[in-house]
Amino acid sequence: MNVLSQLRRARKALISAGAAVALAAGLQAGIPASSQAATSQPCDIYASGGTPCVAAHSTTRALYASYNGPLYQVRRSSDNTTRDIGVLSAGGVADAAAQDSFCSGTTCVITVIYDQSGRGNNLTQAPGGGAAGGPDNLANATAAPTTVGGHKAYGVYVAPGTGYRNNHTNGIATGDQPEGMYAIFDGTHYNGGCCFDYGNAETSSNDTGNGHMEAIYFGNIKVWGYGAGNGPWIMADLENGLFSGVNQHYNANDPTINYRYTTAIIKGEPNHWAIRGGNAQSGGLSTFYNGVRPNVSGYNPMHKEGAIILGIGGDNSKGAAGTFYEGVMTSGYPSDSTESAVQANITAAGYATSSGGGGTGGTLTPGSSVSLRATTACCTDRYIRHQNDQAVTSVINSSSSSLDKNDATWIVHSGLASSSCVSFESKNYPGDYLRHQNFQVYRQTNDGSAQFAADATFCPQSGKNGQGVSLASYNYPDRFIRHYNNTVYVASNGGSHTFDSSTSWTDDVSWIVDAPWA
Ligand code: AHR
Ligand code: AHR
Ligand code: AHR
C-alpha cells in the first residue's frame, strides 16, 4: 500500500471519532476540542508501552497528564529578567498569557526548554562546536504562535543560527542502546541548510565520526540523503550523513512531507531503525523506512553519545531553519502501536494555526458576518457565495459588484440543530441558510423542519490542511463543506461521488474565515 492510501485509511478510521469529539466539546467555531482533561499524555503512553521518556520537551503543553511544572523560560530584553512559563492546569496547555504579559512592550527569547521527565535534561543555549562558534542564538519567543486545543501557545522558531543543546544528560541512550523519539514540526518552515535536528548527538559538540548521532532531521538538504519529490523529508542524522533509508543517498520510500503540523519519528536499536511520520492534526502514522542500519561503514554498531540537540547538527552546524512544538526521547525501542497511541494523543490535542489577528483567519462567532475563502492553491481568491440559489465559489475582491459581495457574505448563527455548531444565514436573503441536499449545498429558506435544521448545521474544527476551519456536516459528520469545480458540496474523503475525490480534499475542505465583504 502506498503512503497516501495508508494515510487515507488511517484518517478515515479516525474521522468519525474526531467529529464526535467536536460535537461533544460544545466548541465555538474553529476551536478544536481541548486536550486538558486527557488522562494519558505522550509520556504516559510511552511508559505504559515499556519505553519511558527520558527527555520530554515542549513549549506548548504538558507531555505527562500529571505534569504541572514549568514548560520553558523566557528572558525579556527590557531588563534581562527571566520568567518560567507553566501550564494552565496539570497535564494542560501552556500559559501563553503569562508570556504575553511578561513580554508586553519588549521582546523575549526562549532561554530554557525544561525537561518534563524529571531527569533534568533541559535544553539551553548551544555552545560553539566543531563546525561553528557559539553560543548560538536563542529563539524569539513570539515567532511561532499556534493554538493547541483552542488555547494560544508558542513554538520554538529556529532561524538559521539558533540552537539549543544539553551535553550533560541523564538516561539518554549511548553506544548501541535502543531509543525512540518523536517531534512535532511546522512542515512548512524548513530550508536546505545543515541541520534542523532534534535528538541524540555528541557530548563534545564535535563531529566524532559515523554513528555518533541519532537524531530526527527535517528539511530539504540533499548533500547526504534525500527522498521522493522536492522535500522536505524526515531523515535520521546519524553523523556524516542524513539517512532517508538504507542507502546513503536517494531512497524512494521517504516521501516529501509538509503538513502544517508534521509528526516525525526516528527510532533505533541494534542493526535496526525506522523513519515514521504523519499529519499531527489528523490520521495515523506511516512508516517510511524500517530495516537494517545503513549500508555504509561506521553505523553498525552505533556509537551514540547521549547529548541532546535542537535546531543544529552534531558539530553545531547552524545553517538550518525550522519550528519545533514538542518532542521526546525514550529509553528502549518503542513499538509501532505505542507510537500510534501517541499520534492519536497528538491529533486529539488539537494543534491549529492561531485564529484571530494572526493572518490565518478569524473565528465563527454567532452574530458576526463573515466571508469564507478557499485555501486550495487554485482558488485562494474565491469565496463561498450563492448564485441562482446554489452555493458556489466566485472570485470576490474590492472591485466586485455589491451584489456579488452580498452573495458572499454570511451571518453566523448558533447551529439550527445544535448550539455546539453553527449555521450560515444569507446576508441578502434573510431567513435563507446554507444547507445541503443530496450532498450539494444551496441557499434555501428555513422551513422550520428538523431536516432543514440538520442540513443547515455545520460543526467547525481546525482546518484539515492546517489553515482556517473545516465545517463538518451535522447529520453526516464525515462530510465537510467542500468546493469541487467551483461548486459547493458536503464531501467525504474518497467517498463514492465525483465530488468526494481525495485529490486536494484537505485543501478543498479548509476555509479561511475572513471579514465580511458586505
Ligand atoms: O550528519 C550531518 C551533519 O554532519 C551532522 O549533523 C554534523 O555533525 C556534521 O556536519
Ligand atoms: O442566489 C440568488 C441570486 O442568484 C444571487 O443573488 C445572484 O447572484 C444570482 O442571480
Ligand atoms: O444532503 C444529503 C441529504 O439529502 C439531506 O440530508 C436531505 O435533505 C436530502 O435528502
Description:
There is one protein chain. With 518 residues, the protein is α+β, with helices and mostly antiparallel strands. Helix content is 13%, strand content 32%. It contains seven helices and 32 strands. The chain has helices at 3-24, 42-48, 96-102, 336-349, 402-407, 450-455, 505-508; strands at 53-58, 72-76, 82-85, 108-113, 123-125, 145-148, 151-154, 156-158, 164-166, 179-185, 197-201, 214-219, 233-237, 242-243, 262-269, 272-279, 285-291, 307-310, 322-330, 351-352, 369-374, 382-387, 390-395, 410-414, 422-426, 432-437, 440-445, 458-462, 469-473, 480-484, 487-491, 511-514. The strands form eight sheets. Strands 3-2-4-5-9-18-11-12-13-14 form a ten-stranded antiparallel β-sheet, covered by helices on one side. Helix 2 runs antiparallel to helix 4 (336-349). Residues 1-38 and 354-360 have low confidence and may be disordered. The chain binds alpha-L-arabinofuranose (3 copies).
Termini gap: 48 Å
> Total strand count, please?
32
Instruction: Kindly state the percentage of residues in helix.
Output: 10-25%
Structural class: alpha+beta
Report the major sheet.
10 strands, antiparallel
Q: What is the strand content?
A: 25-35%
Which helices and strands occur, and which strands form pairs?
Elements: H1 3-24, H2 42-48, E1 53-58, E2 72-76, E3 82-85, H3 96-102, E4 108-113, E5 123-125, E6 145-148, E7 151-154, E8 156-158, E9 164-166, E10 179-185, E11 197-201, E12 214-219, E13 233-237, E14 242-243, E15 262-269, E16 272-279, E17 285-291, E18 307-310, E19 322-330, H4 336-349, E20 351-352, E21 369-374, E22 382-387, E23 390-395, H5 402-407, E24 410-414, E25 422-426, E26 432-437, E27 440-445, H6 450-455, E28 458-462, E29 469-473, E30 480-484, E31 487-491, H7 505-508, E32 511-514
Helix pairs in contact: 2-4
This protein binds alpha-L-arabinofuranose (3 copies).
